[in-house]
Amino acid sequence: MKLKYAREIEILNYDDKKLIELSEKNLLALNLEEMKKIKEYFSSIGRNPTDCELECIAQTWSEHCFHKTFKADIEYQENKKKENICLLKEIMEVTEKLNYDWCISIFKDNAGIIKLNEKSGVAFKVETHNHPSALEPYGGSGTGIGGVIRDILGAGLGAKPILNIDVFCFGELTYPYEKLPEGVLHPRRIFRGVVSGVRDYGNRMGIPTGNGAIIFDNGYLYNCLVYCGTVGIIPIDKIEKKVNDGDYIVLVGGRTGRDGIHGATFSSVSLKEDIPTSVVQIGNPIIEKKVQDVLLSARDMGLYNSITDCGAGGLSSAIGEMGKDIGAIVYLEKVPLKYQGLAPWEIFLSESQERMVLAVNEKNLEKLISLFDSEDVEAVVIGKFVKTGKLTVYYKDEIVCNLDMEFLHRGVPKRKLKGVFKKREEKSFLYKSKNLKRDILKILSNPNISSKEEIVRQYDHEVGGRTILKPFIGYESRGVSDGVVLKPFYDSYEGIIVACGINPFYGEIDPYYMAGCCIEECIRNIVSCGGNPEKIAILDNFCWGNVSDEKQLGSLVRCVKGCKDYALKYKVPFISGKDSLNNYFKWKNGRIISIPPTLLISGIGIIEDIRKITSTDFKKVGNLIFVLGKTYNELGGSQFYRNHNIKDGIVPKPRPEKTLPLMKKLHYGIKSGIIESCHDCSDGGLIVSICEMMIGGNLGCNVDFSNVLSEKEEIEIVLFSESCGRFVIEVPKEKISEFKDLFENEEISQIGEIIENKKLNGFWKGKKIFEISLNEIYDTWRSLKF
Amino acid sequence: MKTKVPVIMSKNFYIIEIFKGKNIFDVFGQEIKKSIKELGILNIEEVKVSNLYRIEGNDIDKKKIIRIAKELLIDNVSEDYKIYRKTKKSLNWWIIEVYLKDGVTDPVGETARKTIIESKILKDAIVKTGKKYYIKGKLTEKQIKEICEKILLNPLIQNYFIYKG
Amino acid sequence: MKKVNVLILRVGGTNCDFETEWAFNLVGAFAERVHINQLIKKEKKLSDYQILVIPGGFSYGDDIAAGKVLANEIRMKLWDDIEKFIEAKKVIVGICNGFQVLVKSGILPFNSQQLCTLEWNDSGRFEDRWVYLKVERSVCPFFKDIPEIIKMPVAHAEGKFLPKNENILNKIEKNKQVILRYCDSKGNIKGYPYNPNGSVGSIAGICSQNGLIIGMMPHPERCVLKYYYPDFLRKKEDDIYTPSFKIFKNMIQYFS
User: Fold this and answer.
1) What is the pLDDT of residue B3?
2) In the prediction, which pLDDT does A428 show?
3) What average pLDDT does this structure show over B71-79?
4) Same domain, A651 and A592
5) To the nearest whole angstrom, how far is the Cα of B105 from the nearest Cα of chain A?
6) DSSP one-letter string for B44-71
7) Which of A344, A365, A439, A654 is the most exposed place for a label (fewest CB within 10 A)?
8) Helix axes A285-300, A187-205, angle to 10 degrees
9) How many A/C residue pairs have CB atoms within 8 Å?
10) pLDDT-flagged residues of chain A (< 70)
11) A651 and A576 in one domain?
12) Contacts of A497 (CB under 8 A, 6+ apart)
């Protein structure tokens, strides 16, 4: 084999040691078994691979693209019990069992799609972009949001993005500079870069950012987490896509450069003190915006048969995936380049941003190209889908890659892994507060609880004219929302609600209950805005540490089991998901630091009428305050205990059998106008919910905390426990009998009244125990400067 | 606009430096000063920021570059400009120039190129954008390097040049 | 009655074209989103329309400076058409990015060279927030019967109104060309965050000498119905249409 443009890579004569060396040297991130499988394939066809072929296989088989851990056979041991488990199956089983007819495209496309009404669907996807954001926060987070927007543009025949969400985890901003190893950026730098990266890309795309969360914990010092999500709307008749034999492969959008080479394989290994720099890149949102504008017109004109985005793995992944059941021929010299000098494999694997791949029938080709041309977007034919069953890639007259699709997509050996989970004993324990007022204010000023206004205001919340319930609501927009409510169509009052649930602190005690709590928090947030608990779909995003460690993998399995059990109990289907594993940092001396196991649950709810929602701000003096749900001694992982460095305590346990019926009634109560404000109880406990409701309403309240239905009569439990299944609500006096009828036999308690005087007066059995002015609450909650 | 990969043969270039007018509040200079103090470097008196456009073109000359600056790039109300080819040192200031490395996407550079070509002032051009920082204060070169790498830029994607005052 | 034709100009990076189209259609106009290349190639004629809108967004990424490149392009490629449009006493509306374009191309305030600008916010950041606006008694006919104090969202990074010198400011004020000023809920002129960007004279919007060309940083198209107000759940108002709706309506009625 004499090659002009590609390079032959010797493997046929390599022994095991050399195979592994090859994988490591070329950043292929393949293990020995996989390398042997590749050798076997090439032995059978009697030649060595080219560089392009080897890179293409490594990318297709990467953890990032193929999710080897989620598809693996895992031998899982919990305490003394052993079982075999496949994580992906567990998650998908939820959706299969629930079998809702409104889940229309699940786990097969770029995003999950559910039915919004007879004519439209809504697509939702959440991605992570952790490694790139740790190295170049601005570019990494910008291309993160750019990437997930393309996922939505490539869902079905293309959905129109209408909402972005983002969730970040950082190290603490006050961490001393001098303690960080060389090359690791300070959390403050990462934080500022990530926020401005997401801001500049999202705002320029004209997509509102309406929901999110930020968590600060030193577990994320070396590996920040950057979750970006996008919601889009799509006509139901544009969901089905199919590549036909003979369709042209058309590449549209940005040009190809050396950007992000090895991104897919890189994200599947750890961050080290010495890092390759080709993986970082800067996005250009205006190109993507132009692509979006034309693409959606082309979709409506029916000019293409299938579409996907160029993300991790670049053209190799996009074309390989689209043509997997047919075959494709690609001519790499036709790909428009940013600059000369790229090797064929670099063109094929490049992860340059803002590109999409279309499958176009010959009869539409001219029209499509001239449509893109009319708005200054490059669209170029780079090949054809043909029924060969092979991925054949040319550079000029040379075949640089010729692989069987069957081998490429189904040849990867299944991994056999081991996971162990040993349950940490939860000790029932109660820490008594020495000064309630001080403890309350300390919680309000904690970065994980306090106002994020300074950050959130940097995002456009309402571009597009669809945002009804905004992140800031109430009196002078001071209050905060549990979720965001959108009105997707200008000519209808139908709505969607988006919210999320995340709490890594529970995971340190038990990832199973963390999963349950996150799922419930997400649902609670949606229902609290007026959502229907029976019309909610969720997404999972697992970010884990070094899963080659049996304990880390065990905790992941434990968490997935929690996801399955609780999703089934709350009857919410998973419609899409993603895992980002190997979020760990390797010091030069070999020490490994994994991130805290982190699960993000994002949810989307459908409602009939956006006029029948509610917000968290107290509305009117004289209205009564109730707590729905019972409070338990569940302070494990709570903000109160973390403020006092207490690691013990019981982690909150979701109680779906009680909470689900309660939420259905709450939904009815909001819809029929009985309930005038509603806020869920989560991080920081009941007291934080009450304070935030006061801020949003610019009103005070008298509350007797001894009236709160609680497992134990202890003020600390009532104020600070983070038990699931609870809401604080406001009911006008004239609706009280209607309210009581509705919630008959439920666990509710009347705890106080809204007053004109701008103070929180706290009582216990009729005796005043503290008094805090609204000013002090508001100032403390906003005291943190980022 | 169909664009080809620009191939500019000559190394014919000018740098346009654009800075805020006298009475305009330089918010970015202030922000950087704040960040430097957070780093624990308190000996800092003043920070100023300019934008740089390094423009390369076969048919470029001083007259054309002045037109580009005045007609296309600066805000005639709030900004002013300087044109140079070689950075001049300054007695009182540390000067740092930062450019994106070759191959890193430069959206502003691409947009500037588009508007230059559409104006027909130049037939074709390569535009690289950068930042220029002026820092005043009793600082060591080591401190300036620390400021650069911890605040002003990311050496993974940017090159920088320090001119000692 | 023949509908008023509204051209909503679109370029790479325009974002608020759809909701602006909706707002104009809601008040009874015929609004159409038109790409700038269609005007340049003469596929569409500006003279067929009564209102030209340059909507919000980030035209060409706001690279170089907000609205700058589109202002250059309009000067270079569409100037004759625009001049004729202005001479014919037709209406031009610039919202947010559109305001930046009108000011940087010199169309506002006096259709001359550039005399004002919209500088970076004093905060140095993009900010989205709702503001109170005082409706000035200006030469602009579109604010007839609008309450004295209204609310709208602003969402921009470069919105600090800045005239070249005192004389320009005096002339704008004397001519009654200021249409909107940032204020508090009672109409008092105040600093940040009421004036969200540090605008000179708290100016949020201005018009041309004849009042028919207007530019403003706040987004009326984002709040034509009461449900878009961040506190709509606190008020029990019957009228679902807001003052912003009325402003669009007034523009259309000018042609009847």
Assistant:
1) 47
2) 85
3) 95
4) no
5) 6
6) EEEEEEEEEEEEE-TT--HHHHHHIIII
7) A365
8) 40
9) 112
10) 1, 263-279
11) no
12) A469, A483, A484, A485, A486, A526, A529, A530, A531, A604, A605, A606, A607, A613
- Take residue C137 and report the two structure tokens written for it: 């008694």
Q: CB–CB of A338 and B5 under 8 A?
A: yes
Would you call B28 an interface residue with chain C, using a CB distance cutoff of 8 Å? yes
In this predicted structure, the answer to whether residue B7 has a pLDDT above a threshold of 70 is no
Question: Would you say A689 and A681 are in contact if contact means Cβ atoms under 8 Å apart?
Answer: yes
| DSSP alpha helix (H) spans, A16-129 | 16-25, 32-45, 51-60, 63-66, 68-71, 87-98
> For all residues of chain C together, what is the average pLDDT?
96
Give the one of C63, C116, C164 whose C-beta lies nearest to B111's C-beta: C63
A201 interface with C at CB cutoff 8 Å = no
Average per-residue pLDDT for chain B: 90
Q: How far is C117 from chain B (nearest CA, A)?
A: 6
Q: Given C13, C37, C233, which is nearest A615 (Cβ)?
A: C233
CATH of the domain at A437: 3.90.650.10
In a domain, A350, yes or no: no
Task: Please say if A679 is a catalytic residue.
Answer: no
Residues in B closer than 8 angstroms to A277, CB to CB, are: 156-157
Per-residue pLDDT, C214: 98
**The residue to which tokens 């097969």 are assigned:** A108
The pLDDT of residue C135 is 98
Determine whether the interchain pair A465/C228 forms a contact, defined as Cβ–Cβ distance below 8 Å: yes
Give me the CATH number covering residue A591. 3.30.1330.10
Type of residue numbered A127: E
Confidence check: pLDDT of B93 > 50: yes
As to burial, measured by CB atoms within 10 angstroms (0-12 exposed, 13-18 middle, 19+ buried), residue B165 is: middle
How much is the pLDDT for A107?
A: 86
pLDDT for A267 equals 61
B5 vs A177, A280, A340: nearest CB: A340
The per-residue pLDDT for A230 is 98
Domains and CATH numbers, chain C: 5-253 (3.40.50.880)
Residues C144-161 have pLDDT tens digits of 999 999 999 999 999 999
Side chain identity at residue A763, one-letter code: F
B62: pLDDT confidence band, cut at 50, 70 and 90? very high
Q: Which residues of C are catalytic?
A: 96, 219, 221
A120: tokens are 């439209």
- Domain positions in chain B: 27-163
**May I ask the CATH architecture of the domain B27-163?**
2-Layer Sandwich (3.30)
Q: Domain boundary at A543, A575, A609, which?
A: A609
Q: Is residue A509 part of a domain?
A: yes
Give B73's contacts in chain C (Cβ within 8 Å): 64, 68
A490 in the same domain as A436: no
* pLDDT (0 to 100) of residue A357: 97
Q: Which ipTM value was assigned to this complex?
A: 0.96
Residue-wise pLDDT for C27-56, tens only, equals 999 999 999 999 999 999 999 999 999 999
What's the pLDDT at B2? 43
- Dihedral pair phi/psi, residue C81, rounded to 5°: -60, -40
Q: Which of A64, A262, A409, A667 is catalytic?
A: A64
> For residues A708 and A751, is the Cβ–Cβ distance under 8 A?
yes
- Answer yes or no: is A716 within a domain: yes
pLDDT digits (tens, 9 = 90+) for C209-221: 999 999 999 999 9
- Check: CB of residue A569 under 8 Å from CB of residue A656: yes
Q: Give the pLDDT of residue A465.
A: 97
> Which positions in chain C touch A480 (Cβ < 8 Å)?
none
- Chain A residues with beta carbon closer than 8 angstroms to that of B105: 257, 259, 281-284, 353
Q: Do B103 and A189 touch (CB under 8 A)?
A: no
* B156 → closest Cβ in A136, A339, A376: A136
Q: Are B78 and C162 within 8 A, CB to CB?
A: yes
Please tell me if residue A192 touches chain C, with a CB cutoff of 8 Å: no
The two beta strands, B13-20 and B44-56, are antiparallel
Predicted confidence at residue A265, as pLDDT, reads 64
Percent of chain C at pLDDT > 90 equals 97
Range of the domain at A503: 109-239+459-609
Contact state of C73 with B71 under an 8 Å Cβ cutoff: no
Contacts of B156 in chain A (CB under 8 A): 135-136, 277, 280
